[in-house]
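PT: before anyone asks, these are the final sequences, not the draft ones from last week. 572 residues across everything. Please model them as a single complex and drop the result in this thread when it's through.
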Amino acid sequence: MKNAQAYFKSPWRVLIFIVLVLATLIWLVPIMTSLVTSIRTFNDILYRGFISWPEEITLGNFKTAWERGGLSRYLPNSFIITIPSLLLTMLFSSMGAYALARFNFRGNRLIFFTFVGGMLLPFQVLMLPVFKLTDFLGLYDTYWGLIFFHTAFQLGFCSFMLRNYMRTVPGEILEAARIDGCSEFRIWWRIMLPLTLPAIAAVATLEFTWIFNDYLWAIILLRSEKLKPITAGLASLQGQFVTDWPVIVAGALLGTLPTLLVFLFLQRYFIEGLTLGATK
Amino acid sequence: MVRLRRNFLPYLFLAIPIIIYLVWVIGPMFYTFYLSLTNWDGLSSPQFIGFRNYERLFTDRVFFLSLTNNMKWLASFVTVPVVLGLALAMILNRAVPGEKFFKMSFYMPMVLAMVVSGLIWGWLYHPRGGLINNVLVGLGIVEKGPGWLSDRALALWSIIIVAIWRQVGYVMVLYLAGLKSINPEFLEAAKIDGANDWQVFQKVLLPLLMPVSVIVLVISVIDSLRAFDLVSVMTRGGPANSSSVLANYMYIQAFNNYRMGYAASIAVILFLISLVFIFIYLWRVMQDELEY
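LR: through. Structure below.
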């Protein structure tokens, strides 16, 4: 309360605070509306108007989306795709980042800038060749086709972030290990990685939501309904329940639950990941 | 001997990442350039036709419509979320009561999948049952609410609003980090010299935030050129292509009309536009490198 008193010492602050509250409420409207919608029936909303006391409250929409809408398949698929992609990206990028951060060799800068530039590419420029390549490798319409692409594309961002962080680790620690006869792979695995853990946690949290939320690559590299992740699945759900909006909205809420939970529990890492690259 | 091994080592660490990156990212990028010079249906082998795809682009009405829509998206993105995000960052940079709750409310849209945001907002925009029209009619502002996503003049802007809703939190995060890294003594010094709040903001804070602003600009441009999911879920580019953006037009050309060569030429145009901003970003990273 002391804080509040200190904050509101000028009338301007009070005004700003009111505007802030209003803006926040507006920002939350879509989520609040979805929560309310998901527990009502479509007829109830249409005939009584959205702004009305619900006639009945039901969890049926969630059940319909989960069972008939196929979310019970789509949601596990998302994890089957996201988790290997995430592990592989973190493994390979932490290897590459170590070399880029800690060794002087020809091509260091070139490779580094290729990673940085690559992470900003518009996806569209990769779409057709990656589609063809995946098909060529016999990976079209398999989880692995998607996993390989995510791993490869996210390498750019992850190597960039981890490399910058690894450069801040004091060199004496590594030198000491070297003098003790530690192999470079052991130094990377036993010394560098533990020291880089804060950055790895931040980047991994961010990457989890990015890969989990991918839609474009899922619809390009997968065709079978039974392999689709939640994002592509929700688009199918929309086609299946064209007019039954409460079911669609309930599905969307269920589908976003994993990333929402990650955000709620790992918010600090998520935010750190976003700001790692922007400010030193 | 030891030296030789030391020189060889970094390449050992980099071998797998580089190979994967070359095969899945860098190689495909160049292959798209080649494809854009061919006629290809995705099944038979591509036939070289020179610059014919590009010539056709110049007379394609939908291509220009999509390009214009991308530019509208871009113009909205480098203004509205930047101003709102900076304003929010300024407000929330000091200890505001309930700070955590406010921040979280603006961050949350970022973690929702675009598809989820598109569906949720699609429902808000619903002509009869949606909240927006219910409020407008309820307050007596209009007699019958518009079809936000089915009206040619409104569809694109309705989608851009959703994109802005997502983007504000992102910009805010970046500016908050930027503000934290500013030494408060600079601001104190300016105040002691008799500058008022607006002058401090304009003459001291904004220039100090310049590096962050460059990043924000690049990210906004790249994101607006990548725009695909929202349009795909909310309107599929309709009605009558009025909300089409390049990414969606390209997708339709490639996977619905099987004109892959033509689609590749659209991708190349997108790439060339973003190249300018990729170089700005690289330049900015280079500055950091030199300082290091």
